[in-house]
Structure to design on (520 residues):
């Protein structure tokens, strides 16, 4: 499946060598990233107009990371070349209209002289670090080296690295003080910020979840099993890797470069039913898939599995996804197994059921089709159904391909949501601490507060003017609270709250401003 997101392999080796030399020249600090200031100086040598350069940056930095890596730099250079030749720039032109290998490097006025001058300087007198930078540092090394020196926030070279710094310095101290990691979500690690976006497939058995992944990849992944019976009996993360192999759950849960350390809280019984399947694939370079066991209803699931998959009921599984409605896509698969009239009835029943389960007035987006390697059953689908399935499949694939482009925006959104949740959690914990007596009757007071937790939430909401919809589930909070002594909690620390408010109100907007399109 063509993603159209990576350009390194889309030009000749001779051109790659030229682009690498230009990239190294432009990357002034040698971190493998070209940010706005470096870019504006370099791209000005193309003699293109500011609107054209703005469009080129927007297309090249499609993920809105605020910088260009080497692959994005090649895309930008090819777009510059096309613009100089008089082509009208569009986001799809490199995927559909142009033979990439025929795009020659653009004309950059005065660049050869500057590159030659820098080369002479480096050969005549070594740089301060003893060598010219030729290989970009891995993202984790980049961030660790900068954070260890405690550079100011304006020294970071991407939005994601900026969020890491803000988390470590502003948000994590608040989470740690009020035990947010025990009540709501584990602490974030660098790998949580750096991980590719994930697509988890959830549904009843034999609805085609594993086949759907196989259809997108165009091949089986290691450990895939397909059959009419419940064949996938574990959670399988399908991600990019140098070769085809399967890694056990306990191993990947302690792997520093993978975002699965938080799963250790579910224990060994779950991790024994969790594994990672790695393989080289262009789509997996952009997205990670999570295949899941089939969700059935009834007592059978609770007795046969050694972990709780939300009591293994599809309705309850969907309920657990509340708050993430914007991320949910519904696929009505194997739709070619019924005729058009039956499909209309199934679709209507599905929409009615989803409305009850999701409990929202908005209509969930439902894609209709048959996502497998088998040809459509045209006899059942008919000409109308066949045309509909093709259009629906195109829409769904376009939605999937769009995920990496929105990954940075989603991380910002999730980070802000987490910060607000951590603030509310701090208010709740400190309020419960304040309600405890100084000396006598602490056990009775804790029981009273636990029993009347919903009322205490209401007091916190009114005192600090907080939206009711942002408060956690009362039952889940009560369940975790029963394992703690409220008297040991911390009192409210206004300076910590203010630090998070400043982060939300000033530092994050400044970070986004720093890494916006440099031609805005």
């Amino acid at each position: 499946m063509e993603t159209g997101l990576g350009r390194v392999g889309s030009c000749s080796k001779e051109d790659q060598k030229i682009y690498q030399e230009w990239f190294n020249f432009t990357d002034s600090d040698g971190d493998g990233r070209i940010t706005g200031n470096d870019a504006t100086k370099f791209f000005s040598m193309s003699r293109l107009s500011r609107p054209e350069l703005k469009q080129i940056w927007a297309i090249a930095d499609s993920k809105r990371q605020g910088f260009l890596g080497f692959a994005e730099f090649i895309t930008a250079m090819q777009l510059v070349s096309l613009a100089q030749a008089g082509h009208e720039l569009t986001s799809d032109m490199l995927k559909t209209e142009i033979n990439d290998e025929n795009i020659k490097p653009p004309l950059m006025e005065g660049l050869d002289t500057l590159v030659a001058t820098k080369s002479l300087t480096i050969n005549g007198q070594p740089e301060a670090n003893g060598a010219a930078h030729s290989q970009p540092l891995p993202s984790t090394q980049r961030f660790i080296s900068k954070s260890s020196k405690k550079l100011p926030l304006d020294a970071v070279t991407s939005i994601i690295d900026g969020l890491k710094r803000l988390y470590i310095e502003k948000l994590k101290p608040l989470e740690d003080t009020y035990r947010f990691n025990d009540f709501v979500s584990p602490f974030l690690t660098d790998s949580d910020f750096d991980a590719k976006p994930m697509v988890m497939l959830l549904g009843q058995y034999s609805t085609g979840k594993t086949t759907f992944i196989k259809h997108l990849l165009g091949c089986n992944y290691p450990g895939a099993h397909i059959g009419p019976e419940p064949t996938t009996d574990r959670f399988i993360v399908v991600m990019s890797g140098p070769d085809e192999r399967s890694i056990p759950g306990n191993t990947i849960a302690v792997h520093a470069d993978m975002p699965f350390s938080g799963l250790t809280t579910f224990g060994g019984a779950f991790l024994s039913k969790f594994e990672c399947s790695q393989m080289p694939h262009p789509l997996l370079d952009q997205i990670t898939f999570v295949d899941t066991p089939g969700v059935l209803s009834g007592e059978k699931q609770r007795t046969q599995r050694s972990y709780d998959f939300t009591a293994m009921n599809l309705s309850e599984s969907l309920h657990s996804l509340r708050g993430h409605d914007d991320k949910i896509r519904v696929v009505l698969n194997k739709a070619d197994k019924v005729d058009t009239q039956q499909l209309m009835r199934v679709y209507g029943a599905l929409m009615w059921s989803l409305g009850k389960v999701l409990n929202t007035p908005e209509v969930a987006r439902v894609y209709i089709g048959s996502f497998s390697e088998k040809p459509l059953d045209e006899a059942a689908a008919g000409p109308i159904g066949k045309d509909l399935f093709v259009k629906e499949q195109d829409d769904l694939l376009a939605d999937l391909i769009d995920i990496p482009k929105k990954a940075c925006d989603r991380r910002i959104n999730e980070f802000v949501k987490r910060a607000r949740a951590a603030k509310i959690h701090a208010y709740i914990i400190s309020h419960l601490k304040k309600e405890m007596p100084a000396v006598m009757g602490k056990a009775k007071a804790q029981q009273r507060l636990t029993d009347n937790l919903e009322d205490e939430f209401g007091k916190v909401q009114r005192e600090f003017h907080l939206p009711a919809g942002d408060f956690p589930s009362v039952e889940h909070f009560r369940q975790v609270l029963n394992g703690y002594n409220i008297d040991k909690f911390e009192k409210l620390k206004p300076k910590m709250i203010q630090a998070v408010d400043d982060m939300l109100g000033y530092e994050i907007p400044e970070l986004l401003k720093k890494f916006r399109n440099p031609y805005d």
Q: What stands out?
A: Residues 1-6, 127-149, 297-303 have pLDDT under 50 and may be disordered. The longest helix spans residues 378-434. The beta strands are 198-200, 235-240, 245-248, 274-279, 288-291, 330-332, 366-368.
